[in-house]
Amino acid sequence: MTSPPPSPEAPPRPSTTGSRLASIAVASALFMEFIDSTALSTALPALSTAFGSDPVHLKLALTSYILALAVVAPASGWIADRYGPRRVFMTAMGVFLVGSVLCGFSRSLAELVVFRMLQGVGGALMVPVGRLIVVSSAPRERLVSAMSWFTMPALVGPLVGPPLAGFLLKIADWPWIFFINVPVGILGMLAVLRFVPPLHQPYPGRFDMKGFLLAATAITSLVGASEVVGMGLVPAAVQLGMWGLALGFIAAYIRHALRVERPVLNVRLVRYDTFRASLIGGTVVRVGLGATPFLLPLLFQVGLGWGPLETGLVTVGTAVGAMACKPVAPGIIRRFGFRSTLIFSNLVTATITALPAFFRGWTPVPLMVLVLVVGGFMRSMQFTALNTVAYADIPHNTVSNASTLSVVTQQMGLSLGISFGGLMLHLARGDSEGVITPGQFILPFVAVGVVTALAGPLFRRMSPEAGASIQGRSRMAA
């Protein structure tokens, strides 16, 4: 690795049709990951019964995956540049499939957590490398459209996942929510082989092992500290020590990253206004929204006494709204600009996120579905704008660095959100261990709504012309 290999001939400029097919192929491969995560959320109460665990502790099945993903993801950019995005993507899918099968054979929460972490290793490479393939394959002026095509097929996963999990739990046992990934993953791999061309990335140089170890320790410490805070699992002094360790390693990594030429996570990219707004604002939004997939199934199945199939059919409203948004998102962004779109969608999303706090047994089911559909629509609008504006101003040769940093911070936000939701539910329950009532969900949902709204002031600081070069609007119109 001391000298770069011969530079391959530059690939031809991608066509619109070719970039669209590549986007759909990668998204179809990621489809199984979306099915997996949403199906698992619906199955949490069933897993609680199978393993004899408190429902709140089942959040470990979600956060363990995100932890592994966030720890390994910093290396994904270098690995993709060194060995080729398509090859790395295919290998990651294989690792994810092996982890899925092993999860299905788990017989305890501890085993499930370990095998979910193996899935997370595969996901750590699939998510950022998949985005790298899409961004690298699309002409700059077609980036908004390519990202929309990339995310729209993947949203079928959340559309199918909850009712599929409910159906499987009704006719079979919970391991089948993992086994179903196998045929989906194989079809996705075939699509990638057919439609994704080999991409030639700049030689990444020597791997930043010191930075990787610092970042991995910082991420692990931060997730561990957030998991135990306020839960009474460890003494207060230990909790403070974990937070101090996490902050210390974060500071150490930032100092290291600013001194080396090719850090594993390139924090220098925050100097670009659009990328900084996407990174920080998107992380805050995901802290607020990360708790929702954890809280909603518990509210419906434990708080309201619904079955998993009924829960899946109602929670699918979020995915329906997200799907409906994708075809119109590029036009809305072109008409109103990134800044206005983000401000408005964040305000509505924060409000809608808090409304399930007031769901009761007498609440009309169509009203619940309507709330979730509108929330899914606005949430999808917000994430489409965030994920696209991030690449508006950064140099093309730093796309893999930007993609890696974005994925790591996004997953950290989601992990912190799940821990935050679990903490709020724990505080709302008080001394009533083993009993969860609908009224106890008021604090968790209102709290995550408030946190989501905190991103609004960050979006207001953006320039009205932010992202004008990629949204198809002239700077005068912006």
From TrEMBL:
It is found in: Cell membrane. It is a multi-pass membrane protein. InterPro entries: MFS (IPR011701), MFS_dom (IPR020846), MFS_trans_sf (IPR036259). The chain crosses the membrane at residues 60-80, 87-107, 113-134, 146-168, 174-193, 213-234, 240-258, 279-300, 312-329, 341-359, 365-391, 412-429, 441-459. Residues 22-467 form the Major facilitator superfamily (MFS) profile domain. Keywords: Cell membrane, Membrane, Transmembrane, Transmembrane helix, Transport. GO terms for cellular component: plasma membrane. Its main location: membrane. PROSITE patterns: MFS. GO terms for molecular function: transmembrane transporter activity. This is Drug resistance transporter, EmrB/QacA family. It comes from Cystobacter fuscus (strain ATCC 25194 / DSM 2262 / NBRC 100088 / M29).
